User: Fold these one by one.
Assistant:
Number 1:
Amino acid sequence: MGTVGIVGLGLIGGSLGLALKQAKLGGIEVAGFDQDSRVGGRAHSAGAVDRVAPTIERLASDSDLLIIATPILSVRKVMEEVAPHLRRGAVVTDTASTKGSVMRWAREILPREVNFIGGHPLAGKETSGPQAAEASLFTDRPYVIVPMTDSAPAAVNGMVGLARIIGARPVFLDADEHDSYTASISHMPLLASVALFSLVRGSQAWPELANIAGPAFRDLTRLASGQPEMAHDICLTNRENIVHWIDRYMEEIYRLRDLVQNAEGDEDLFRAFVEAQLARDSFMDHLPERDPPGSMMTEVPTSNDAFMTLVAGGYLAQRAKDVTNLFEENERERNERERRQRRRD
Amino acid sequence: MGTVGIVGLGLIGGSLGLALKQAKLGGIEVAGFDQDSRVGGRAHSAGAVDRVAPTIERLASDSDLLIIATPILSVRKVMEEVAPHLRRGAVVTDTASTKGSVMRWAREILPREVNFIGGHPLAGKETSGPQAAEASLFTDRPYVIVPMTDSAPAAVNGMVGLARIIGARPVFLDADEHDSYTASISHMPLLASVALFSLVRGSQAWPELANIAGPAFRDLTRLASGQPEMAHDICLTNRENIVHWIDRYMEEIYRLRDLVQNAEGDEDLFRAFVEAQLARDSFMDHLPERDPPGSMMTEVPTSNDAFMTLVAGGYLAQRAKDVTNLFEENERERNERERRQRRRD
């Protein structure tokens, strides 16, 4: 019997539970914890978890795979709470929308004998909370996996298995790539959406504007209805990338503004619209090819095998060896450092 | 038997035809014309029109209500083509996304004995052409009606009837209000959407970005897939309002950029997100009250009556009297002018 533990049973945590349970994996139980016990109760009633753990420490000590699905700024505190209780060889992952800070916290806080692998399922909707959770939330969505440089292949493969089991497309990125990329396709657009809504909402003509606003305005301002905590935490943990992309966005808008301002008989403005239309239609039709995936991808046996191995034993034996090696290495390093230190003193 | 004529049988013209036919109004036929005869044929096969007129002139001379549903910059040419053939007392309307130019052209080109009333159903989708047409396109959407200062009440009421029959919400605005309002909720957002897509598409990392782009990026860039002709014509006929709103949008983005840049312990950024969320959720929940509608609204008997009266007679008798009065007035004015002129010479 292996245990997947989920900390935070809102939209993402709850949906992960539902998707895992829907996969009907024999020998795996899904346990959960939420600091709001009503949320935990609701997730249990909805069938997102087999049981709710009485404490976060207890969930940590029970879990072979622990998924931290809390708001970003809470991830650090959760890591501190679970760190002393994690099993040797356990795998820990998260679902945060930014990865730089989370990876840094994991290196600082989590014990070396557990394997942290960053995760970010690019799914979500404007409604949040456990009542919005659904098993199909991740279907065909990208699931970014951010291994540490020393992550055990079996743990990485297990994460690929997790992504596939819930119907998502695993994508490997490092933390810097992830935070730069998501700034452009997600975080800057979030601010653009909030800016559009706030601007129009602040107009004196708002009652008139609201009454003639069509689907375009609704779609483009959708992200303004997202969770404020999430938006805030994203901005605080990915500030430089976001500011960089906002600046580039303003340059691009200014370019179009000039085309509009100066459009006469010339075709520049029309060409800009044609090019955008062709390129977007092509994007909606099929995704562009990425560079060939790294070697890690080719090692993945099948999704279920890798995931089951990760959560339900097997991996533990292999990991125990990795961990022993690592400890011996660390031990040697420390002795070496101390020797050097003594010589210098 | 009354005839509704539709010039241009693409997404909007075709959907208008389908919606009118679905209403099964006895004694009304829907005729159409498209400069592309294949589009006309397709609209006829799809049941959007009862018949396709052999020429635009013929459609004009047959129609009690003529709806011009072409791209904006073609509206002028269509007006010139139909003007000599329109029936006395006919009502002419359009569906263009900007109203200032169209109203000016109507005053310049159309004969005084027809009644032009501007129209703009705020509906649409990213797919265009007759194959995208659907009867439900206008359901619960605003339909802006822009009367001339001298529009006959019966003609205005008929337009309200048209809007209601196809399931839309009639909204009265003047041309300046319309163009300023739509610049903020539709035209500037269109450019923001194109800018976002073009910027991200132009990134060297595009293959990676496309593969992790989630529903947010798709929703926010949806307008970039719209018809380039439409976007172009909108920009050319509503330039000043659009540039004004782009400038305000850039200011608002810059305000958020500064909040992100400087966010520390303070709550300004978080508050901005909370306020946007509350206000947008409230907007999605219910539309704000507008000022009480003008007296014109209160004269509307029932939708079908007003529309039937407009298209299928009744109105013609009343209108004939209005027209005679107008002609007599014009005649008196001309005589007066000529007399003054002669005295000065």
Number 2:
Amino acid sequence: MSHAGTGTENSGASARIQSSVVDKRAGRSLSGPGIHAVVDDFVHGRVPGYQMAAWLATVACRGLDRTELAALTEAYVAGGERLRLERVGGVVLDKHSTGGVGDKLSLIVVPIVAACDVAVVKMSGRGLGHAGGTVDKLESIPGLRLGLAPEEMYPVVRRVGMTIVSQSAALAPGDDATYALRDVTGTVESIPLIAASIISKKVAVGADGLVLDVKTGTGALIPDHAMATRLAETMLQLAGDFGLRCRGALTDMSQPLGHAVGNALEIKEVLAVLRGEQVPGVWEACLVLARLMLQSADPALTDAEADAKAEKAVASGAAYDRFLAWISAQGGDRRVLEQPALLPGSRHVLPITADRPGWVRTVDPRKVGMAAVHVKAGRLSHSAPLDHGSGVVVARRVGDRVEVGETLAELHYNDGDAGLATRLLTQAFDIDDERPAPPPVIHRVFDSPVR
Amino acid sequence: MSHAGTGTENSGASARIQSSVVDKRAGRSLSGPGIHAVVDDFVHGRVPGYQMAAWLATVACRGLDRTELAALTEAYVAGGERLRLERVGGVVLDKHSTGGVGDKLSLIVVPIVAACDVAVVKMSGRGLGHAGGTVDKLESIPGLRLGLAPEEMYPVVRRVGMTIVSQSAALAPGDDATYALRDVTGTVESIPLIAASIISKKVAVGADGLVLDVKTGTGALIPDHAMATRLAETMLQLAGDFGLRCRGALTDMSQPLGHAVGNALEIKEVLAVLRGEQVPGVWEACLVLARLMLQSADPALTDAEADAKAEKAVASGAAYDRFLAWISAQGGDRRVLEQPALLPGSRHVLPITADRPGWVRTVDPRKVGMAAVHVKAGRLSHSAPLDHGSGVVVARRVGDRVEVGETLAELHYNDGDAGLATRLLTQAFDIDDERPAPPPVIHRVFDSPVR
């Protein structure tokens, strides 16, 4: 282990962050300039990873008050790029999900909203562990470019009303640097650190309205219901502190979202929903999120009016057309969407069947997600390669009746450890004699904009 | 920032320490094997500094229960050397102080106890920041060798009844590795981490009895009285959990200990006390610590009997002779002790005088310690060079009466920033119209051996 810096500048930074660790541990408030200095010193290499790791771990234990949280968020954005959405013109919305297993909602909701003539700019990430990522799913589509510079995004949004691009580190350099460290130091699961990370990027995007989808349940980033609620409330308030009008929903992640888990499999499900198939769990959630977005653009819209608009956008084919137009606008090959059989697929499909009759009580989203990882539909380390054709199709949901020999799920695979994946899938299903109440799709809606 | 390891072994270690961080933060107990694995992985380079820093910061926030604390202490010692004090023969004691400004008590107490025919083996460290270190003080003496291997120590103890050597990293490799990291990550001030660090080395020494001197007050490692008491109780219990018979005292560090602060200056004060000068603050503390050590060797000894032995050891010159015999046994030049003018000195002596009459209410030990640091009697970084001749002589103590122009302290210096040191010394003294009650020298004695 080497010591932190030798120059005067670095020894000042070293003393500052150590005092900050001691103060935070002792329960003293950190000043805004103090928090800014810690992040800035780390981003510019004046404090090493081990000092920042101690700081993040201490914050994860002790929390941040409202003022400290806003200061950290501001520090994450400092020195970064900001989008100039005024170049798009009109109202532009942003959407974020805390992610989960089979969460392809953005890919459905964004074209629906765009088809209702409300522009959306969305930055997405990659998956890690049991949860998938929107960028990975979209990379199933040949030719699609997701690494657009801001100047390339604006004309796409002007032309097709939407864009989805991969997260740029340039927007919130402080978040980018600290996230990489949190990811390997057990400091991801912290409400203030999650909130600052997410909202810093939203501040840099600077949309006219933001809709947050916070998941709760065993497959969520924050499984506990009360904690997930607190995360949602914290983010709504924090966004408001930056003048970002924000609505949100607490949605269910106690079982996988819809049937498809895996990259091209999920793109196929997205296309099915955009063509009108009301996939259970997916459609209801999309309708609520689209409603919140449409009301963000037009606060006078009633729930019924918003839902009618979204339903019409799907029924008329406008949302589907919008999705394909967007894919083309970013260089994607729309023929593979018109003929989904051209998307990456798998050579093997293995059914997992029920060994007893009864009602499905549990479909463990983490086990399903990890089964997908073991056939390379997901990854355990950032650098692991993906198989875009593999994954899981979940045939039964909580509350469904099954008989012996009926299919619970299918494992789609090319390589990886199909044996382990099969075991995980088998363990994921719990079948009971009593019929359980299925969990709600939407647990709570935060529908008044916090400011 | 690089990721933690790429091999399978390292990714297992990485996952283990991250789970441990998450579990500890969530309030779940860590298992003994889990704690052992974390320390072992770090010592063997399977987890990087930033992961260990997050772990230490989390432990500093959440604490450790009695079982976890014993496991951490055990893990610190694992794979290290252990002393074989049976090669010395008879009862061998150990002593430890949490340190402070002007704390030269070990150098007086150890020869007193040795002169009473009770052997003592003591490992000491260097100073950092406002507090000095015994090794630095002893290095004022030309020729004295402190880096003795265990095999070299045993004959010294057999011959002169005592040894003081510099701390060996080989005794508690886990403590050594984590201490270096704590030192730069704001995680030093944690009761369980301090207790495990200190007691692990005592376990490796394996003496027949241990006396702990825990300081309390503004100049102490743990200034707060209640926290320092808890540290003392925690260490006594932890030592007992390893079968180490332990007594201790909570002693005052709300003002500097004695007059001398600085390396050769303190050696001169040690010689004066060993020759019978009852330096205020120093002599009373030495008497109590010697009593606890003598009673550790002979539990039947009453306080009065123990004190009489210690007083006689000094009055007879036996303790002084023992100190000089020990210095010679480890290669030191005893002539410089017989003629202290030969010890390193300073070219300049600057008196700091009272600018008003009154009673001394405060002598801030941190300011006095930092004044000494600025004339190079101490150091702010491990690699900074020391001036063994410089330092501070504190002329007045809390409760003393002073008149305008009387000397409060003297700054002894050769180079460094004498201006800054003078300002700090001036600020260190607070003179009041009312006569304050001087603080007790000994706050509490833990005189029954905890086992």
